Amino acid sequence: MFQLGWFGNLTAPEWAPSPTSPYVTDDATTWMDGRFYIDQARNLERAGFDFLMLEDSLMVPDMYRGTSEMALKHARYAPKLDPVVAASMLAYATEHIGIICTASTTFYNPYQLARQFATLDHLTRGRIGWNMVTSSEDRAAQNFGMERLPEHDLRYEMADEFKRCVEALWMSWDEDAIVADPDTGYYADFTKVHRADFEGRFYSSRGPLNVPRSPQGTPVYCQAGGSPKGRDFAAKHTDLILNIPIGVEGMKEFRNDIRRRAEGFGRNPDDIKVFWVVLPIIGETEAEAKAIEQAWADAKDYNFEINMAHFEATQEIDMSQFDPDKPLPDDVTTNGHQSTLANTKKAWGDKTIREAASESSRITSIPLVGTADQVAERMGEVAEEVGGDGFLIYNQPMSRHYIASITDGLAPALRRRGLIRTGFKHQHLRDNLRDFA
Ligand SMILES: Cc1cc2nc3c(=O)[nH]c(=O)nc-3n(C[C@H](O)[C@H](O)[C@H](O)COP(=O)(O)O)c2cc1C
To test the ligand 1 pocket, which listed residue (9, 55, 221) has its Cβ within 8 A of the most ligand atoms? Predict the structure, then answer.
């Protein structure tokens, strides 16, 4: 058995026909009221998804050719809603599914973040997770009054301290601090509410937090770093890791590496769940699924533009500065997602930028193309071979049509094979994640 997660973007759903959906709905202009995402969350919960991960970033990219055209034309990386705020609405509309919100350790303030996530853990009755990101853009830094983003490895050091600071705040209320004693008249026992007195190199906070201890104590910790520093951070601190290694061999290598690092930090590797990012294409017939895949491969201009938007947003590289008819120069570097750039260099090899960037804009660890039954079968085989814990399903732009192909096509086919859950045993996300592997 394995688990299912959903890579959610609080951004514009399908506004034009795309390879994964021929339909255009009103959602493209009304998504900002959150109703589309409530429907999505309820469908995922019904289908047996363990969690919905809400990604985030904090800027409108405008590197490519010096304008925001690419990002805004394709609604990539902007616009988007704040996941921490939206999570509260999604929680009220659901009962079991975990909700994992992305929040930046580089830009947020520890006390504020500790308060928000403790609040969310209460409001969800223990279903909240925190996707810890260090952010990757000078543009975001400039939105927060800084000139530049701190350097890549330093950001992970800051994140390490940030996490210790918020944990000190979350622990500032003992579990039994609330007595609500009708005889003595005491609500909370002040001897069980302590100052945090956290003093670090980058952050300090006095505490105590003004939110009582939350149901899970701490949110489920999630992370998606791929560089050596990122992998160490993930292996040391998280319950859940998201990654996109390419192919079954890449998946095995990644998982073994994380488990080895976790042991090195004195942790039980089984307490860390690794999820692979995949983009299943489900057709009513195998031929239909293959036609969708082909349509995607044929959309060369679209793929090129999406890749340009991806580079500017995640690596702050303006690809228009290079000759598109030559390979990506060797000496390109980034202060953003370093592992993404390294993987791209490897995958593109000697191809020209135009050729490589036009080939594909699909993000997936393994190809999953076919009928619901065929894809379910393949996911079962890969999970068996790699020993992974779950799959994180990603597609963009999102549509009700695509969601239905997963929640009402793929998920039932997985369940018929006994591969995914039939219900939720526990109230808390962390307990459900550890239910089985
Ligand atoms: C599945 C997945 C989801 C991610 N979500 C976010 C996100 O929401 N916000 C963000 O700033 N970075 C996000 N990232 C980027 C990672 O946090 C990390 O910066 C990136 O994978 C590069 O890691 P590295 O800097 O260790 O090389 C995501 C990465 C992956 C693989």
Answer: 55
Q: Which domain holds residue 347?
A: 297-359
d(CA 96, CA 98): 6
- Specify the number of domains making up the chain: 2
- Mean pLDDT of all residues belonging to the chain: 96
Decide: 227 in ligand 1 pocket, CB within 6 A. yes
Question: Rounded to the nearest 5 degrees, what angle is found at the Cα of 51, between the Cα atoms of 141 and 1?
Answer: 130
Residues 105 and 216 in one domain: yes
Residues 251 and 339 in one domain: no
Residue 312 CA to ligand 1 centre (angstroms): 14
Query: Is 231 part of any domain?
Result: yes
Q: Is residue 32 part of a domain?
A: yes
Q: How confident is the model at residue 437 (pLDDT cuts 50, 70, 90)?
A: low
Q: Quote the DSSP letter at residue 59.
A: S
In this structure, the answer to whether residues 206 and 325 fall within a common structural domain is no
Helices and strands per DSSP (H, E), number in the chain: 17, 12
Q: Tell how far CA 65 is from the center of its chain.
A: 28
Same domain, yes or no: 30 and 163 = yes
DSSP secondary structure of 203-238: -EE----SSPPPTTSSPEEEE---SHHHHHHHHHH-
